Amino acid sequence: MDKLLGDPDKTAQFEALAMPHLDAAYNLARWLTRNAHDADDLVQNAYLRAFRFADGFRGGDARTWLLTIVRHTYYTTQRDSRHQRADLDLDQMPEEPAQEGVSDPAAIAAARDAGRSVDAALSRLPYAFREVLVLKEMDDLSYKEIAQVVDIPIGTVMSRLARARKLLLAYLKQGGQDGL
């Protein structure tokens, strides 16, 4: 590994390839792990794997390639550890910065409450639905890119997205009922 890290050309090429997609990788990791600390670890492990196997990247969409590695790293970690992670406690989430131009405390509180409601509703979605919804709505991947990352047909992506959106809307309409 020291030899790989010592190669400035490979390091520079990897940085140019992978670093623009760090936010998307973290976003996916955050929703997979449901924990900011675990997401940091997952992204770090995934980027190490990506760096180690960067020679195997044959072109194409680097973001899709990286998100696939993040997802596979997560599943490998889950399989190896054989234990489930605890649900994210919304009180432990980092503070959100105030929105620019919004100084009204009531507006800031309402925005935070809405964010918590969406987070709670997302956490209730079945995993397969939450995964495709996050990749589409938060990472703005195309159906084809999601199909590649999740390794399912495009039709299944579209079906899961439609069902995820309906369920999410139903959970949000329920508001504070049933634990929300």
TrEMBL record:
One of its GO terms (molecular function) is DNA binding. Keywords: DNA-binding, Sigma factor, Transcription, Transcription regulation. It comes from the Bacteria. One of its GO terms (biological process) is DNA-templated transcription initiation. Transmembrane segments: none annotated. Residues 117-168 form the RNA polymerase sigma factor 70 region 4 type domain. PROSITE patterns: SIGMA70_ECF. The keyword Transcription regulation applies. CDD domains: Sigma70_r4. Belongs to the sigma-70 factor family. ECF subfamily. This is RNA polymerase sigma factor. It comes from Duganella aquatilis. The lineage of its organism: Bacteria, Pseudomonadati, Pseudomonadota, Betaproteobacteria, Burkholderiales.
